[in-house]
Amino acid sequence: MTILKFILIPIIIIALFSIIGMFLVYMERKVCAFMQIRIGPNRVGKFGMLQTVADTLKLVLKENFSPKYIDKFLYNLAPLLAIIIPFVLTIPIAYSKSWQIWDINIGVLFITAFSSLSVISILIAGWASNNKYSMIGALRSGAQIISYELSGGLAILTIVMFSQSLKISEIIASQANGWWIIKGHIPVIVSFCIYMITITAECNRAPFDLTEAESELTAGFHTEYSGMKFALFFLAEYLNIFILSALGVILYLGGWQPFHLPNLLEFNNIMDFIPAPIWFFFKVFLIIFIIMWFRWTFPRLRIDQLLKLEWHFLLPLSLLNLIFGFILIMLNFIVK
Amino acid sequence: MYQTKDILLSPDQHQDGYTVINIGPQHPSTHGVLNLVVTLDGEIIKDVQPNLGFIHRSIEKMSESLSYRQFIYVTSRMDYLSSHINNHACCLCVEQGLEIEIPKRGQYIRMIMDELTRVSSHLLWWGAQSMDLGAFTPYFYAFRERDMITDIFEKNCGARLTMNYMVPGGVMWDVQSDFMDDIKKFIKQYQSRVHEYHDLVTYNFIFQKRMQHIGIISKEDAISFGCSGPVARGSNFRCDIRKSYPYELYSSLDFNESLETSGDCFSRYLVRIKEIDESIKIIEALMADFPEGDFQAKTKAVLKLPKGEFYQKVETARGEFGVYIVSDGGATPYRIKYRSPGLSNLSILNKISQGAKIGDLIAILGTLDLVIPDIDR
Asked: Across the A/B interface, how many CB contacts are shorter than 8 Å?
């Protein structure tokens, strides 16, 4: 039985994540087209649904080119490392009550710890490429991701304090009588906003896409990557968005739990009728849509503005927010 | 000026330990084949040396072997975003030598086309500038409106980019019967959508922070580096040729010269946005009393300028464009010199971008609104 699990679970994860990655690329292109008064992909398959499949096939079949003066080992390691991290991060994510690989008792800590590893793959990629553009991009990402991890961690800590657990299942269970975003008052709303900003920054998405700023550094850290190695970076970006949005749903939007209104039994029964994974994915894609919305609306920040936003604004705010939340708990203001 | 040994130095060989990177000639935000040899100290720019000549086609030399009717058409290929205005300058210079009186209708058509070109050029710049700063959506908004102008050009001139519509003595042929309706439709659509532009870009907090206090040009610098057009007017330097040296009927028109005082990237942005409104005002005024009659004066089959020197400058979307013709009395010019706004505006880049960040360099480069074929010619 254990061996079967060892074989089956990775296969399921890889299959699920390939589908999610492809769907997110398709979704991004359609959302972007919708915002830019275009149609978007519409040739391959119905509504262009198979466009990403075709693109992936093209990338797989492309020549596996690598430049001459590179550090071969690190150059090839970086995309692998980038794609492994989201796969590891999926372990504690609960898609429904029983659909969870490992309900580790430090689930949230696990995710924050492993998600910070993604910066290493970017640094390796920038260093090994032997390209000045890549190097500048990698150094930028080092400064950016490490800074934004701080306020992201503090935002998560607010919820951990409220639900008094690091375990994913217990955090979700604490929201059975209302999602934290609804019953958590101001501290949770503030921490949700900070969380949204930090996950956008941690995934290197616009307006924080300084590591791959197209108009400045051509393609940043993945300038020298092409074919499937580039595709792995690309896929890793989308999977990171998915994982961090899923964590956001678990922390703030009740995980897989349906939306309930107090004192409306019939409405709640209808909501209960919708399966939990559908609720979960619906909420995750809602958050992802907001992140995509950011990308296609805002211009990019400059590196000093980016760091200023974090150290001068977000970090003090999240610290104050944490203290404010603590006071509310002490005064028994928060409904458990 | 840049020398070959500069780029051959690797970062650790460079005397100060700075990094030297090449931005361009194939880079998304140089908008063409411009090569900037940038010396960096981390993110901070120490030195920028433009390296030109990648698209040099010797247009000036070429013009010497073309007749006075033909040489006008190569100027469309210089600043391709304001080809109407380039052609206009050449025509005016030739007409100055031939002393031709241009019919009223021809002048009106020319001026309307000029102003439409200015609007379309600024719209494209607006989209490209937003894209340089990392916002992609405005580009498509700009192209939605610009496409209407390009359609008007296509309908009346037969081309969308290199129009070749103006000839010595007037314009090549009369405008179509629905010319007025098309323009009115465009103006109506632009004015109903301009608030989207401001919501999306002008009032955007990040955009303002990226543009303000960046690449400041003082009025003295603008004059001494020979800047012109919106780049100089952003520094409060009155240099609009339409006002100071009016040609055609600009002296009889009532319009404002867009000026801003701070001289940074954002003021150059505002100048261009204001200029779009001014141009639309001019077009509306011209359309109100659009005369009937001839669109072209009678000219000889072979034009021969008298012996002498002729100079005519006009205001393109990028600044002062001048045509200098030396004639020896023959059917082709003896020597032609073009004064292009792009080259003079580029010359200030090194001065204003020192000490800025890489992201700022891209913003500054964008607000100079360079068209590379115009610089190299």
From this structure: 83
